[in-house]
Write a structure and sequence with these properties.
The chain is about 30% helix and about 20% strand. Strand 1 and strand 2 form a beta hairpin. Helix 1 crosses helix 2 and helix 2 packs across helix 3.
Length: about 300
């Protein structure tokens, strides 16, 4: 079996390349979008919720064309790329009166999933203005939460698709590369966590993590048709002490390499970050497809 190229964890073999060429030859006047969807249907290349992986396939087709392996029809039109010059989120004004009290005084706290809701603009604005990394548009599956107390936002939490390869995480799980490709979508990565700067409430961060982990799997399944079995996050220890994760019994498994996903260097070019995991189920390894792996005593479930 000759592997022509590998893209996003999928090995493209000669017979699959032949299928692409046949589809292009059969539809010479069709759009690139039509061709990519036909390829996805032929391969049954779908997301966990059944949607065709159309955008990923289109990127693959462009890669194959750049290698001289296929010849795509010319683009029907050249639309402006909304990702190339994305405007920053519109600023939404909120009450910034300081909140300094005990956790009991601001309870009840309502954690609202705002992805694909009118409140998503508020989330984007708060992250862009007050998080040290700013706002970037997530790619792939993701959820956004705002924590409200007495109708006022106090915090934001964002979850995205898991990082493709994290050595210390993958060794902790014990899965093979093939199993990771099949089940990586069952891990959620916390990409942003923001307590708004005017909110000074002891234990709020660990409280929010606790209530978020109790609902995230159901919310994810509602939107993407599959549950979440493991949470992951990376902590820049030059900035933060990871106190809320330690208090919440998250498991420290090691550090990132600092290479970055696009780096071609063998030396760290980015700050190394502490990797923390939280299993949502006792049998998370089995759920992630690692049938032969015994459950570690270190794996503390929710």
């Amino acid at each position: 079996m000759e592997i022509i190229t590998t893209y996003r964890g999928r090995n493209i073999i000669a017979s699959e390349l032949s299928v692409i060429r046949q589809i292009i030859a059969a539809h010479p006047q069709s759009s690139r979008r039509f061709i990519s969807k036909e390829v996805c249907r032929e391969w049954n290349w779908r997301q966990a919720n059944g949607t065709l992986k159309d955008m990923i396939c289109r990127s693959l087709l462009l890669l194959l064309e750049s290698k001289g392996l296929i010849s795509l029809p010319p683009p029907a039109c050249r639309l402006p790329n909304p990702l190339a010059n994305r405007k920053p989120p519109v600023r939404v004004t909120v009450d910034q009166t300081p909140i300094e009290c005990s956790i009991r005084e601001i309870i009840p706290i309502y954690l609202e999933q705002v992805r694909r809701t009118p409140s998503e603009k508020l989330f984007n604005s708060l992250i862009n203005e007050h998080h040290y990394l700013g706002y970037t548009q997530p790619v792939g599956e993701h959820l956004k939460y705002i924590a409200f107390s007495h109708h006022r936002p106090v915090a934001c939490l964002a979850w995205s698709s898991a990082q493709w390869y994290i050595g210390v995480r993958d060794r902790f799980i014990g899965w093979s590369a093939q199993t990771r490709r099949q089940n990586l979508h069952r891990i959620a990565y916390q990409s942003r966590f923001l307590i708004l700067p005017w909110v000074r409430v002891s234990h709020l961060a660990s409280y929010l993590l606790a209530i978020n982990r109790r609902q995230i799997s159901q919310d994810w399944e509602r939107l993407y048709n599959h549950p979440i079995d493991l949470l992951e996050t990376f902590v820049d220890t030059q900035r933060f002490k990871a106190t809320c994760y330690k208090a919440g019994n998250w498991i420290y498994v090691g550090e990132t390499t600092g290479l970055g996903k696009l780096s071609k260097s063998t030396h760290a070019t980015l700050p190394k970050k502490a990797v923390y995991l939280y299993p949502l189920k006792k049998d998370f390894r089995r759920r992630l497809g690692c049938e032969a792996c015994p459950q570690s005593k270190e794996a503390r479930p929710c």
